[in-house]
Write a structure and sequence with these properties.
The complex is a heterodimer of chains A (111) and B (115). By secondary structure, chain A is mainly beta. Chain A has no helices and nine strands. Chain A has a five-stranded mixed β-sheet, with no helix packed on it. Chain A has a four-stranded antiparallel β-sheet with strand order 2-7-6-5, with no helix packed on it. In chain A, β5 (55-56) and β6 (61-64) form a beta hairpin. In chain B, 0% of the residues lie in helices and 49% in strands. Chain B is built from no helices and eleven strands. Classes of the chains: A mainly beta (111), B mainly beta (115). The A-B interface holds A 32, 36, 41-46, 49, 87, 93-104 and B 4, 31, 33, 35, 40-45, 48, 50, 58-59, 88, 90, 92, 94, 97-109, 111.
Chain lengths: 111, 115
């Protein structure tokens, strides 16, 4: 699986959009971009994933650049409960979930 | 559905003791995984299983053993506990390794301290 690079921490004001970047310049054609988050040492929670098209669900939006070398997770209206560590993962759709979680981005949402 | 259930939530072990971390899932998932997470770090894969009777090593298997006698259960065994095994352990499961939309479900973790 391709390696990802994320900023170690970010701040966001409550009610504003949180934009979390991820670089994955070595991504292969069959690899998907997944985002998970981990709130206060709980188990990681799935947020969203995509291949090359932008994706949106009830939690977030995922914007993937045309060359697929980077992506941005957008939380449109961040709340205090969105304070967490966010992990960007790149993996193929085969071989189970033998994936590597990096250190992620620690997002602080402030009132 | 309960999802992925881990027991115990907390445990303190003395050096050299052994214990088994329990993990059970009720989603009939084929794949199950054990990760460890050290403070401020990401998750590292210890062992995984693609089905009952089949297990394989991940990144950091030394000091651990696993078994998978049923689809539901995937216990992690620590023999001769060492301080380096102080960590938070997460169990996870996925439906099928070859599906496109494979979402991993994680348990709430077991916080282990070896003193």
């Amino acid at each position: 699986d391709a390696k990802t690079t994320q900023p170690p921490s970010m701040d966001c004001a409550e009610g504003r959009a949180a934009n979390l970047p991820c670089n994955h310049s070595t991504i292969s054609g069959n690899e998907y971009v997944y985002w998970y988050r981990q709130i206060h040492s709980q188990g990681p929670q799935y947020i969203i994933h995509g291949l090359k098209n932008n994706e949106t669900n009830e939690m977030a939006s995922l914007i993937i650049t045309e060359d697929r070398k980077s992506s941005t997770l957008i939380l449109p209206h961040a709340t205090l409960r969105d304070t967490a560590v966010y992990y960007c993962i790149v993996r193929a759709n085969t071989g189970g979930f033998k994936t590597i979680f990096g250190a992620g981005t620690r997002l602080f949402v402030k009132a | 559905n309960a999802g992925v259930t881990q027991t115990p939530k907390f445990r303190i072990l003395k050096i050299g003791q052994s214990m088994t971390l329990q993990c059970a899932q009720d989603m009939n998932h084929n794949y199950m995984y054990w990760y460890r997470q050290d403070p401020g770090m990401g998750l590292k894969l210890i062992y995984y299983s693609v089905g009952a009777g089949i297990t394989d090593k991940g990144e950091v298997p030394n000091g651990y053993n696993v078994s998978r006698s049923t689809t539901e259960d995937f216990p992690l065994r620590l023999e001769l506990a060492a301080p380096s095994q102080t960590s938070v352990y997460f169990c996870a499961s996925t439906n099928q390794g070859f599906r496109v939309n494979t979402e991993a479900f994680f348990g709430q973790g077991t916080r282990l301290t070896v003193v």
